[in-house]
Design brief:
528 residues; 15 helices; 7-stranded mixed β-sheet; 14 strands; 5-stranded antiparallel β-sheet
Length: 528
């Protein structure tokens, strides 16, 4: 990717010199493995090992041998000065090895292992990294190690972000700097600190930065890959969302009770595989989030109704993975003695935007949601003749017509049919408006770039992705069965097949997926 192939270890000498070096290397390896098998960790043995690693840093066993030697020292030595001196020597061995090959995985891993001991100066590590990244600003090993050291030192994310800005301004083609920037921003957005007041503001500034790189060299892939990451962040919401619920918002459930106080519930949109359910322990309330969450309880989700008893509801996850799940259920215990025929009883559910509900990756639930449904007590009647007179009597529901669901507080059905459940997404209109504005702006940027460079494959590919994202974002509008930009996207992939034949198969796959989506939506319109 960086266009910098690894240099040959040979210095171009004569064949006789190369053979002599090979013989010397073989002799060092033989003696090293002998010391390793016999667990000899003397000063002379470590010096021989260091010499071997300076010639060939790729021998993982040699690095592991040094770790074993240090562990033995730690077990027998209590003087911290002696331990630090030995660890400093390990760092010097690594430095000499990296001069031979600055992309040696074994050398970098060994340095991390030594630094983790806690005896070394992290400021010194930053100084060495500054020198390394001046010599090779795109060395991904160096950038990865810098993130490690910054984390060890608890460096401020803003400072690390400024460093990447400096390196990117020096060279827009620094893919490793762009990647490091995405890692830092992901951490900052996740933890909501580091000077970021809002995702929208930060992402807008990032688009402005990468735009400079795109117009400087539209064929350099580094900026385009970062732009693709920004697009992913733009269309993906931060934090979990409440996607579905049962009873659904605004629904009306028809309810009745038998002699055993079992609740008969009739609702066409139940997630239990039937529209007529009989519950013996209580009516389940179902909340389904966009990703696994924890912290759903009586303090983060409140349920209020005149029918409810005083005790708090207990929410339980439907998941084989412990306390985190997408779907949560509680039982609404309704005493039949409180119901009166013909009455309607309201139930309100409030999911608060407190810090209690947290996703698997650490994001907080930040979209307060209000749900309301009603319980209508069964009032169907029939006409009966009694003593020659016609009277109206209640029509009792038969248990045979209802599917019994044995749900208790400790075991809920693992499989729920959630297809028909939904949450009104109007609460996220502000977020959607920013997404639309961002996509519109970036589409305009790509079109302007294509006016300058008509055959820019990166601009065409990014434009196609932006148009697809815009159509997907408009999926809930009147365009539900029609993608506005389908024909243009198909043409863009056709163009890409011609101007970038080395990736033609990928473009053909994307073309087929878009065409299949178009045909499926056309069929859906005819069926509707």
């Amino acid at each position: 990717m960086h266009g910098r192939p690894r240099k040959s270890l040979s210095d171009g000498g004569s064949q006789e010199k190369d053979m002599a070096k090979a013989a010397g290397l073989q002799s060092l390896q033989t003696q090293f493995f002998k010391n390793h098998h016999e667990k000899i960790y003397t000063k002379e043995a470590l010096q021989l090992n260091a010499k071997l690693l300076e010639i060939n840093p790729e021998i993982y066993t040699a690095w592991n041998y040094r770790k074993l030697a240090i562990k033995q020292l730690l077990e027998s030595e209590s003087d911290s000065a002696v331990i630090k001196q030995s660890l400093d020597e390990e760092l010097r061995v690594v430095e000499r090895a990296l001069k031979r090959n600055h992309k040696s995985y074994g050398a970098w891993h060994h340095r991390k292992w030594v630094i983790n001991m806690g005896y070394s100066s992290l400021d010194h590590e930053f100084q060495l990294l500054d020198q390394l990244l001046k010599a090779d600003s795109r060395n991904f090993h160096g950038w990865n190690y810098r993130r490690f050291v910054a984390d060890m030192k608890k460096s401020r994310d803003e400072d690390e972000l400024k460093f990447t800005t400096k390196k990117i301004n020096e060279n827009f083609s620094n893919y490793s700097a762009w990647h490091n920037r995405s890692a830092i921003l992901s951490h900052m957005l996740k933890n909501k600190y580091g000077g970021i007041s809002a995702k929208e503001q930060e992402m807008t500034e990032e688009y402005e930065l990468v735009r400079q790189a795109l117009f400087t060299d539209s064929e350099d892939q580094s900026g385009w890959f970062y732009h693709l990451w920004l697009l992913g962040q733009t269309i993906a919401p931060i934090g979990p969302k409440l996607e579905m619920s049962w009873p659904s918002n605004g629904s009306q459930l028809i309810i009745d009770f038998n002699e055993q106080s079992h609740a008969y519930v009739s609702d066409f949109d139940t997630p239990f595989g039937t529209d007529r359910c009989m519950f013996s322990e209580g009516i389940p309330l179902v909340l389904h989030f966009s990703e696994p969450v924890k912290g759903v309880n009586a303090s983060t989700v409140t349920v209020s109704s005149l029918l409810l008893e005083s005790e708090s509801l207990v929410w339980r996850p439907i998941s084989p993975h412990g306390l985190q799940a997408k779907t949560w259920v509680t039982l609404l215990k309704l005493p039949s003695t409180k119901f009166r025929a013909g009455e309607t009883y309201k139930v309100q559910i409030r999911v608060a935007d407190t810090l209690g509900i947290i996703s698997l990756n650490g994001y907080n639930f930040t979209c307060p949601t209000a749900l309301d449904f009603s319980l209508d007590v069964h009032t169907m009647t029939t006409i009966r003749s009694t003593g020659g007179n016609s009277v109206t009597v209640p029509l009792a529901w038969e248990a045979d017509f209802f599917f019994p669901l044995a749900i208790d507080e400790n075991k809920f059905p693992i499989e729920l049919h959630l297809d028909s459940l939904s949450i009104d997404g109007s609460g996220n209109q502000e977020n959607t408006r920013w997404q639309q504005e961002t996509l519109d702006r970036e589409i305009k940027v790509c079109r302007e770039l294509l006016e300058i460079e008509m055959d820019s494959k990166w601009a065409k590919l990014t434009l196609a992705r932006l148009l697809i994202a815009q159509d997907m974002l408009s999926g809930g509008s009147i365009l539900r069965n029609k993608r506005m930009h389908t024909d243009e996207v198909l043409q863009l992939f056709n163009d890409l097949i011609e101007i970038d034949p080395s990736h033609a198969e990928y473009y053909k796959d994307q073309f087929s997926l878009i065409l299949l989506d178009k045909d499926w939506r056309l069929c859906s319109c005819w069926v509707a």
